[in-house]
Design a protein that fits this description.
Blueprint lengths: L8 H5 L11 E4 L8 H12 L2 E4 L7 H4 L11 H8 L18 E3 L5 H4 L3 H19 L3 E4 L6 H9 L2 E6 L3 H14 L4 E5 L8 H14 L35 H20 L2
Parallel strand pairs: 1-4, 1-5, 2-3, 2-4, 5-6
Helix pairs in contact: 2-10, 6-7, 8-9
């Protein structure tokens, strides 16, 4: 039997069998851009030992952040798989595993025009997750494009849990409320991101009202605002155990581990 990769050993320490997540579907989603979806998706995918599926079609994508530029490639793993009606094959999985990076199904610029309808996307994702769960014994984490595009809506509908980076600012909270009004019946978890040491009472109250109205819980752990993150150029996740996290990232890594644990516990509690 394969040994548990180092990055998943925190699960064992917390009494969680990594195999219990095989085939599970997580998304990181929010209608508002720039709230930290891609950042959260990369870190969570790594910690959960998940296959990261990149649904973004512009420059800020996880594929590019991790060092795979889809524009340099003739073909798209994602679009080819959809056309051929088969499950996409991740890069950096199994024997091709790379230090500090989750296994990845890269996105592509053409996915904007080539994405299936929400209903078809939902069915495809369920089939892919089941298949990848069997093949690799892993869950999937989908990094969605901002807004309510068909691929995002399909992914949200298919997911066991949708993680929503929640930024305590006016337009971000309005966009969040709009999203929950439309699709708040799906399983979401608000994860406050880019927070200050004492978040403004107005936004905390707002988040709690959303929690009560739409039964969308707020994570216990909040992620602080780390200015240096946006200038970081290392193509590895912060939570990578394959390189020593820089001292300034220690608090961030602790927060992300706590959030990963909350995500797993919630997912397994609702199955
Ligand atoms: N907690 C944080 N503190 C500081 N910067 C952060 C934090 N989380 C994310 N960022 C930074 O904010 C920027 C936007 O993050 P990211 O690209 O993950 O957002 P996004 O929601 O995926 O954006 P888009 O909607 O364009 O896909 C990035 O530069 C990222 O490094
Ligand atoms: Mg993004």
């Amino acid at each position: 039997m394969a040994t548990t990769p180092l990055r998943q050993q925190w699960m064992l320490r917390n009494g969680i069998a990594p195999s219990s997540l095989a085939g599970k579907i997580f998304t990181v989603a929010a209608y508002k851009g720039g709230v930290g979806k891609t950042f959260t998706a990369m870190e969570l995918a790594y910690l959960l030992g998940a296959i990261l599926i990149d649904f973004e079609w512009d420059e800020g994508s996880a594929s590019i952040a991790l060092g795979y530029n889809p524009d340099d490639r003739q073909r798209s793993i994602l679009i080819d798989a959809i056309n051929a009606e088969r499950t996409p094959k991740p890069i950096w999985a199994g024997e091709h595993e790379q230090a500090g990076r989750p296994a990845l199904i890269p996105g592509h610029a053409e996915f904007e025009d080539r994405q299936p309808s929400a209903g078809d996307m939902e069915k495809l994702i369920r089939a892919w997750a089941a298949d990848l769960g069997k093949q690799y014994g892993r869950p999937i984490v989908i990094d969605t494009h901002p807004g309510g595009s068909p691929s995002t809506l399909g992914a949200i509908a298919a997911a066991n849990l949708n993680i929503v980076p929640t930024v305590f600012k006016e337009r971000e909270m309005k966009a969040l409320e709009g999203m929950f009004k439309e699709i708040g019946h799906f399983p979401f978890l608000m994860v406050p991101n880019m927070t200050t040491t004492s978040p403004p009472a107005k936004y905390l109250t707002w988040a709690i009202r959303l929690q009560d109205t739409y039964q969308v819980p707020i994570s216990e752990e909040f992620i602080r605002d780390y200015r240096w993150l946006s200038t970081r150029s290392l193509r590895m996740v912060n939570c990578s155990v394959d390189h020593a996290p820089v001292k300034k990232a220690a608090e961030l890594v602790t927060s992300l581990n706590a959030i990963a644990k909350e995500v797993v516990v919630r997912c397994l509690a609702t199955q």
